[in-house]
Amino acid sequence: PPQPEFCIFYAKPGARPIDGFQAKWPQPPEGIEDAASLDHLSGLDLPCYRVNLFQEKIRGTMMNKTDREKREVEHQDAGAAPPGENETREMLAGRTCIVQVRMPDLDRQIPSLK
Question: With contact defined as beta carbons under 8 Å apart, do 72 and 65 qualify?
Fold first, then answer.
């Protein structure tokens, strides 16, 4: 069977309903302040998906030993959250997750099971 089409986004409280498939999604927000001004955030534009772990690892190897140790201590103090996770939580705070699924083969004449 074919894979279903779906769309995931997050809406602010009181935001008007939208069709996520037809929406013209803006550029991903650069920071938490940019996200706060948007009524809807695409689930694909969250900071946790934009982190390049390979690039982070390379940055770590380019540091001298004292800088690397300092960075490790900072990560431990920050609760050792993966890169982008804290920013994602702040962006989604108070928002509702909405998942829309296209079901073109659904027969509207058959009543749903309750």
Answer: no
